[in-house]
Amino acid sequence: MHTNLFNIVLLSIFLSLGCSSLYSQDIKKRQSAIPASKQESKNPNTESIKKDSIAKTTNDTIKLDTLKVKKSTLNGIVKYKAKQYTKMEPKKKLITLYDNAELYYLDVELKSGIIVMDYEKNEVYAGRIKDSLGNYTQFPNFKQGSNEIQPDSIRFNFKTKKALIWNSRTSQGEFNVKAAITKKENDSVYFLKGARFTTAKDVDNPEYYFYTNKIKFVPGKKIVTGGTNMVIAGVPTPIYLPFAYFPLSKETSVSGIILPSYSDSNSKGFSLQNGGYYFALSDHYNLTLTGDYYTNGSFAMAAQSSYANRYHYQGNVNIRFENNIVSERGYPDYSKTKIYNIQWSHSQDSKASPNSTFSASVNLGSSEYFKQTINQVNVGSSLNNTLSSSISYSTVFHTIPESRISLTATHSQNTNTKVINMTLPTLQFSVDRIYPFAMNDGAKKGFFKNINLQYNLNGKNNFVTTDSLFFKKEMFQDAEIGFQHSIPLSTNFKVFKYFSVSTSLNYDEVWYFKTIEKHYDNQTAQVVTTEIPGFDAFRTYSSSTSIGTTIYGTFNFGEDKKIKSIRHVMRPAISHSYSPSYEKYYDTYAIDGSGEMQKDYTRFEGGMYGTPGLNSSNSFGFNISNTFEAKVTDKDSTKTEPKKIMLLNNLNISTSYNADATTLAWAPVRISGGTQFFDNKLSANFGTTLDPYAIDNSGNRINTFNINNGGSLFRMTSANLTMNYSISRRGEKDNKKKDSQAQRNGGREDDLFGSDIDTGSYRKNSQFTDEDETEDVIGEFFRSKLPWDMTFAYSLTYGNNNREKKIIGNSIMISANTDLTPKWKAGISTGYDFVQNGVTFTQLRFERDLMSWRMDFNWTPFGTNATWNFYIGIKSGILSDIKWEKRNQNF
Q1: What residues are paired with 629 via a beta bridge?
Q2: Quick one: pLDDT at residue 333?
Q3: DSSP letter string over 813-846?
Q4: Nearest CA among 605, 621, 607 for reference residue 653
Q5: pLDDT in tens, 171-198
Q6: CA distances from residue 71 to 47, 49, 308 in whole angstroms, order as listed
Q7: Buried-exposed string 710-736: b where 16+ CB fall within 10 A, e elsewhere
Q8: How many CB atoms within 10 Å of residue 613?
Q9: Closest CA to 371 of 331, 337, 405
Q10: What is the C-alpha to C-alpha distance for residues 736 and 730, in angstroms, rounded to an integer?
């Protein structure tokens, strides 16, 4: 592949600069200090040394010194205790505490095996003691305010607040620090010598650490080091920094540089991806600016922001622009495209406002974005061929009757046809039902008392355009505006006790601001359609009535049978609807030069709310819904009651007959149903369409029943079957669905189309959790069955509209994840299309828990989006830039 020499040299400079210093970003909330051991519940004899009593002398045979004894400078009460003994040495001004010794002074808490206090020098010494086997135990635990350390020994001055500490161990945020010698200069500054710091849990035996001989440590603010060397598994690495700076903050995150990752592709050359800067703007929102650069001249820019206000709202914004160049200018495969994608998600807390709500779910952009971008977190998103968006605001007016209004902007985009349908906005206004004949007590029984009416208004400003004209002036020139007013008058009542009747009379009025006119042009010999601007409206009315009941049937097989009984619930319903003919809204136009052939049309054709009907409709509908359930003997012998299982969730049969139609009066029969198996883990849905009429040689329906044309009673025109199965042998915590970038792209919640690639920016999708490190995962693994989960989907579609008797679609998709070992996880998403005879989208996933590190490998072995991604890096957010990531994509 040809690349630009200038861009390669520029990329090399960036790579050299990127390895010269170390930064941090996205610091998590600081962990709480390690709690010290609890005090004994009993109240031991605790001695106190007050500052006025220390200077007093005791009665002995020695003559008092003529020098005045210096008064103590202690500013508070010193409390102490010990398990074995407390030794007082007044001459030496010493107090020795031995075995589980504890000392408290102001904000200082000290617990150790032995504590020696010199109250003349205002100093205290603490150290370990040996047990009966000669091992050191009861290491000192020194706590001052929120800072806590566990050294081998410590020497502390109460007056100067200075301290000298040997082999100290402390935690600051995500860092664990161990130093051979620590000098406490004051409450806010520490100097460390021979120090190692790491994010590993075990600071004495870490998987990795940074070693330096000089550290200036300001708790809660920063760590500044001299020459620093990275050590992995006890082996020093060539990674060396002349100095390093690590900011420490009590805030959840701080601003910082995001180091890019390296990648290469066959079409764009070598690249640096996802490099930029993270801005921790406030506790309520942040901003991430990243970019990509490729050696063939392509580049990308992205902005991401998350925001939240507790009990009010939360959301995130993701905007990305790419300038893609393939090959080089002058070559036949050269191309240059600009693509973009905008995503916005906003949700309002229900407590924020009881009367109004605002929400947004936006996913729009170039139709080719997910097919052309090579910096994609989930390559399965390229299989999605629909982008959709919705922004809505609604409010309620507490009037009598109550009313509500909502404004909605919607967007639907087909990435294959590049057709965009957008409403900006949609207005909906409704007034609650009014019962004019109901009594004041609110009772609504009978025909008259249940009579009610309401008012609904729907208005749209609709645009139908293409990807290339989106938000250009041509898009707005073709706007369509319309309003629909609807007033339904309805009631319901019962007849003969078991039959429910509902009837309604509907009035609709539609307003358009653009109509059409058709005529035949003799010069061009074509029918010309002319748009007529201006207000116009049509009004229609219709009526509908339905009557239904519920029939229960039980088939008993006997108490001694495994299947004790089967219950069948059937809900038949008959409906009638009538709509008159509205010929007054129709005109005619010639369709040939003679003017004799005429065709009817209405000036409202193409309107968003439809057109008035030319022919009257007097239709009778027939529908039967069924459910089947059984009582069976429970496998659990301790239970006395039989177990209920669902045999068939629903079985619906429906058709209709138009009494005013002169031909093809019967509608096709639609049969659909669904059920579940294996404790509701497997769901199956099926459907078929049966046409009673025959077809001619051209495939058109004719007014002849299929049975009279030499066929069967019904002609199956289509059938479909879908099955979904999910099973898991994991804990409830592991089965929780996570919000992923694939979902925000419009994909599936499961991973049938693959899971997100866990790059540095998306490590939250890792299968490993911090809780796993505190558990005996190895012991639990071998004491239990292998953890795994699987998702299965099958789809079958049959078509026979023109007697083709053809399987249109027949495919299976499977996704499985398992724990190979306590530290190894693997997954696969794949499928097979039996019509195309090929493997569908396939992704292999591997993940390794390396204690403080994590390794991840994703591979899509074939297809148009064949790619692999390898990542290894430190889990901790504070050192997330210490990583190595490699991608390769074959576009």
Answers
A1: 567, 646
A2: 78
A3: EEEEEEESSSSEEEEEEEEEETTTTEE---EEEE
A4: 621
A5: 877 788 888 998 888 777 889 998 888 8
A6: 19, 13, 57
A7: eeeebbbbbbbeebbbbeeeeeeeeee
A8: 17
A9: 337
A10: 10
Nearest alpha carbon to residue 175 among 144, 208, 146, 201: 201
Residue 425: cis peptide before it, omega within 30 degrees of 0: yes
> And the tokens for 6?
């200038």
What beta strand segments (E) does 603-660 contain? 617-632, 643-658
With vertex at residue 282, the alpha carbon angle to CA 281 and CA 283, rounded to the nearest 5 degrees, is: 145
Contact criterion met (CB below 8 Å) for 567 and 552:
yes
The helix (H) or strand (E) run that includes residue 533 is strand 526-548
- Enter the tokens of residue 41: 């519940």
Q: Cis peptide leading into 401, omega within 30 of 0?
A: yes
Question: From CA 434, how far away is CA 450, in angstroms rounded?
Answer: 10
Residue 389: phi and psi, rounded to 5, are -145, 155
Q: 226: number of CA atoms within 13 Å, CB side?
A: 9
Residue 598: its pLDDT value, please?
84
Are 785 and 792 in contact, with CB atoms under 8 Å apart? no
Q: Say how many CA atoms lie within 13 Å of 243 toward its Cβ.
A: 4
At 788, the amino acid letter reads W
User: Collapsing DSSP states into helix, strand and coil, what is residue 551?
Assistant: strand
Tracing tokens 């997954």 back to the chain, one arrives at 827
In the block, residue with structure tokens 């001695």: 47
Query: In a 3-state reduction of DSSP, which class is residue 514?
Result: strand
Do you know the residue count of the chain? 891
CA atoms within 13 A on the CB side of 570: 9
Cα angle 696-699-701, degrees, rounded to a multiple of 5: 65
Among residues 511, 476, 727, the alpha carbon closest in space to that of 607 is found at 511
Q: Cα 389 vs. chain centroid, distance in angstroms?
A: 16
- What is the rounded distance in angstroms from the CA atom of residue 182 to the CA atom of residue 166? 6
Handedness of CA 751, 752, 753, 757 (dihedral sign): positive
Q: Which two tokens stand for residue 276?
A: 């930029």
Distance between terminal CA atoms of the chain?
A: 13
Q: Token match 């693997």: residue?
A: 826
pLDDT tens for residues 629-659?
998 887 777 777 888 888 888 999 999 999 9
Cβ atoms of 293 and 271 within 8 Å: the answer is: yes
User: Which secondary structure element, helix H or strand E, spans residue 601, and what is its range?
Assistant: strand 598-602
Mean pLDDT of 697-719: 90
The one-letter amino acid code at 217 reads F
Decide if 745 contacts 378 (C-beta within 8 A): yes
CB 268 within 8 A of CB 260: no
Query: Which string of b and e fits 247-263 if b means at least 16 CB within 10 Å?
Result: bbbeeebbebbbbbbeb
Q: Which of 613, 602, 650, 620 is nearest to 547 (CA)?
A: 620
CB-count exposure of residue 797 (10 Å: 0-12, 13-18, 19+): middle
Give kind and range of the element (H or E) at residue 674. Answer: strand 669-677
> Residue 441: what pLDDT?
61
**Residue 11: what pLDDT?**
47
Beta bridge partners of 404: 396, 430
Of 242, 269, 397, give the one whose Cα is nearest residue 324. Answer: 269
Selection from 259, 293, 250 nearest residue 278 by Cα: 259
Calpha distance 622→366 (Å, rounded): 46
Cβ 569 vs Cβ 626: under 8 Å: yes
CB 258 within 8 A of CB 271: no
Cβ burial of 851 (10 Å; 0-12, 13-18, 19+) is: middle
pTM for the complete prediction?
0.69
Higher pLDDT, 666 or 888: 666
Q: What is the rounded CA–CA span in Å between residue 717 and residue 699?
A: 11
Q: Which helix (H) or strand (E) holds 802?
A: none
- Which phi and psi (to 5°) does residue 67 adopt? -75, 140
Spatial contact of 730 and 787, defined as CB atoms under 8 Å apart: yes
